Amino acid sequence: MNKENVKKNVCLIKDCDRPTHKKSKYCIFHTGAEEKTEKEFIDALKKYIRDTKEDKIYSLRDFIFIGDINFRNNLNITSFKSVDFRNVVFKRGANFKNTTFEEVVNFDSATFEGVTTFDSAIFKEDTLFCGVTFDEDTDFWRIIFKKHISFKGTTFKGDTDFGVTIFERFAMFIDTTFEGNVSFNFVTLPTGNKLNIRELFVYLKKKL
Ligand SMILES: [Zn+2]
Description:
Number of strands: 23
Bound molecules: zinc ion
Helix content: 10-25%
Mean pLDDT: 87
Strand content: 15-25%
Structural class: alpha/beta
Number of domains: 1
Shape: globular
């Protein structure tokens, strides 16, 4: 059997190596929403999480999440050690309420098509939300960003709430677009001085 035949039923995403799902050219995680049911997807995701329990290194890059995704309630995850969310798509809601991210977390180029909440999440290491699209209302309320956070090139299409959030290090909002209302009420910035707060708001006004 030549190499092409061996690879025939393997997902087209680079380095995925999972079997293709039904008639799709991609696996259950990477195939489009129209080619899988919510039950099939969540069952496969639960199995993946179970199988990865030992080292807790989750490679979710390019996954297309369907249904209401709630990592705490559906998948029993309250804390992520190492996780890669680059270029993922959440077709509906994504709920990361009270979740702790222990290591560097990367959501670059992700798309959140439904209402998204990170309410009370803690990001312990550098966090990247660059080039992300949030299509609906987004909640970054009561977050603690302990290290650097970047929203460079990200678009918030709905209302966005950063109220009561603590930015312990540098927060980058370069080329960030807020199309809806945005609240930064009672945020805490690194030095806690008013100049920094004013600069942040001047920058935001330019973009609004
Ligand atoms: Zn795949």
